[in-house]
Design brief:
The structure is a single chain. By secondary structure, the protein is an alpha/beta fold. The protein has a single domain (about 5-200), classed as 3-Layer(aba) Sandwich (Rossmann fold). The chain has seven helices and six strands. A six-stranded mixed beta sheet has the order 3-2-4-1-5-6. Strand 5 and strand 6 (about 195-200) form a beta hairpin. Helix 2 (about 35-45) packs parallel to helix 3. It is globular, with a radius of gyration of 16 Å. Keywords: Glycolysis, Isomerase.
């Protein structure tokens, strides 16, 4: 049987950008809100008995803060992987979603329908995001102990993009994927290069009703 390693991808907790309904990548690196900090603490408690061996994170503050309590409990130093960072939002970076919606921009409407074919002006498409995320994770997991568990803090579109790539799906399918703050997805990576989605009790369904972009 091929060797494998597991990674639990976690979307960061609620950030100040989420609370404000703003997109954030390059122009703003917001911290977690009080609710987001609570979600981070809850994640650590959920995984207190899990066999976590490694922790990786996006370089953005909200992701790093999300795994801080978990890292403290398991005495693990998180490793920053730049390619787990947020989707490049191009000219929309820092803007409020409500403003983009009220402007009724054709580019925005097209992105809502298919973020693969219609990325933000000057930004990334969602499948390219998924490919860079999985490439970074596969390179990291190849260095890990077999059958080990890694927790990785990242962003909603990074998780959506990874799912699309694993399932060989296309951009419009991302509109049917919900990734709430602190939402979790377990992936298994085999040494043959194959990825598998795993249904696991480690995964926790979010309780909050949120805007998921």
């Amino acid at each position: 049987m091929p060797l494998y390693a597991d990674i639990l991808l976690v979307r960061h907790g609620e950030s100040e950008a989420n609370a404000a309904g703003r997109l954030a990548y390059r122009t703003w690196d917001p911290p977690l809100t009080e609710a987001g900090a609570f979600q981070a603490e809850r994640l650590a408690k959920q995984l207190i008995t899990a066999p976590v061996r490694y922790i990786v994170t996006s370089p953005l503050l909200r992701a790093q803060q999300t795994v801080e309590p978990l890292a403290h409990i398991h005495h693990i130093q998180p490793i920053i992987l730049d390619d787990l960072s947020e989707v490049d939002l191009g000219t929309w970076d820092g803007r409020r979603l409500k403003d983009l919606e009220s402007d009724n921009l054709p580019d925005f409407r097209a992105w809502r329908q298919d973020p693969e074919a219609n990325p933000p002006p000057g930004g990334e498409n969602i499948v390219a995001v998924g490919e860079r995320v999985l490439s970074a994770l596969s390179a990291f997991l190849k260095t890990c102990q077999p059958a080990s568990l890694t927790v990785g803090a990242t962003h909603a579109d990074c998780i959506k993009g990874a799912i699309l790539v694993v399932l060989k799906a296309h951009g419009p399918a991302s509109r049917h994927i919900s990734v709430p703050n602190a939402g979790q997805l377990l992936l298994r990576y085999f040494d043959t290069g194959r990825w598998v989605l795993i249904f696991s009790p480690l995964c926790h369904a979010g309780e909050e009703d949120q805007d998921l972009d």
